[in-house]
Structure formats: C-alpha cells, structure tokens
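Weekly sync, protein design subgroup
Attendees: M.S., D.O., the rotation student, P.L. (late)

Item 1: inverse folding check
M.S. brought a backbone from last month's batch and wanted to see whether the design step gives back something sensible before we order anything. D.O. pointed out we never logged the input encoding, so this time it goes straight into the notes. Structure tokens as presented (165 positions):
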C-alpha cells in the first residue's frame, strides 16, 4: 500500500512549489491521501499540538528513523520505542506521534491503539508543524531550521528551513 501511495505522489510532487502557501497546500494534499489508511486514528492539527506544547502538555513521539532523528526533532520528543517501553512514565502529557508527513506516525498510532494506548497522529507531520510556526531542535537541544524530509517528494518545508534527505 505504501508503495502505491508513493508512486501516486511521485508524479504530482516532482518539484516543490516556490512559495510557502503552495508548499503547505502540497503537504495538506499528500496527508489527505495518507490519512485515508487510518480512518480510526485520532489526529491532532499542528496548531492544536503547538497549543499543547505551549502549556507543557505535549509529548511528541518521533516515529522516524534514527538517521532522521539525528538531524532534528520536535522539542521534548521521545522515540516510539521509548514511549512503548514505559507509557506510564508519560501519563501527564498528551502523546502525539509524528513523522515527516503523517504516514509512519499513523501506523504507529494505529498499532498503539491496538495495545490500548491512545496516541494521536500529528496531521501533516513535522512539515505541518513547521508550516504552523513550530520549531525544531538538534540532538543537543539547540534550535535549528534543518529538517530531514525523508526524500525529494517531501521536500516541502517552509522556505526558511534547510531540507536534507
């Protein structure tokens, strides 16, 4: 299924729009296709996640590969493995899974729900977070505007970000 989704997106996503509204619109369109795979998964908008972060109640769960995590993450993020190892340790915060755009985190949230763990999927992933004005940190916790976008198809971060893949 993922391969079919990727192929369908490749034709539509050959080059990124030059402006941020166009990039955000492309992110939204891609996510709309992906989220159809997870009709029962609760999602949260980037704006709602930012509001939770502002109150210290957000638990970002990074479901990306270690190479992606080594570039940057949402502030305060834990890995999916760390969360699953001891969900009770994070009971005071709202668990929200994210990846580049929401597919892998949707899989994670669906599997967590099967284990009785309520995890929301961050709509549009780290790209949506950035377009909503969210920040990133590097592995040392310093603010950064560099983001791993998984591949050329998802090179849709705001223009003030540096994308790598």
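Designed sequence read out in the meeting:
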């Amino acid at each position: 299924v993922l391969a079919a989704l990727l192929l369908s997106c490749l034709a539509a996503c050959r080059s990124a729009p030059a402006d941020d509204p166009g990039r955000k619109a492309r992110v939204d369109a891609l996510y709309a296709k992906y989220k159809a795979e997870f009709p029962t998964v609760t999602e949260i908008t980037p704006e709602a996640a930012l509001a939770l972060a502002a109150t210290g109640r957000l638990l970002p769960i990074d479901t990306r590969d270690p190479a992606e995590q080594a570039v940057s993450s949402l502030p305060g993020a834990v890995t999916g493995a760390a969360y699953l190892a001891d969900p009770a340790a994070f009971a005071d915060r709202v668990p929200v899974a994210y990846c580049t755009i929401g597919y892998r985190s949707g899989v994670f949230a669906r599997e967590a729900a099967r284990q009785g763990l309520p995890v929301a999927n961050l709509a549009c992933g780290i790209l949506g977070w950035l377009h909503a004005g969210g920040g990133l940190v590097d592995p040392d916790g310093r603010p950064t505007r560099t983001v791993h976008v998984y591949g050329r198809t998802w090179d849709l971060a705001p223009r003030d970000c540096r994308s790598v893949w």
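Discussion: Helices lie at 2-12, 20-35, 46-54, 66-69, 80-85, 103-114, 125-131. The first strand starts at residue 43 and ends at 44.
Action: P.L. to compare against the previous round before Friday.
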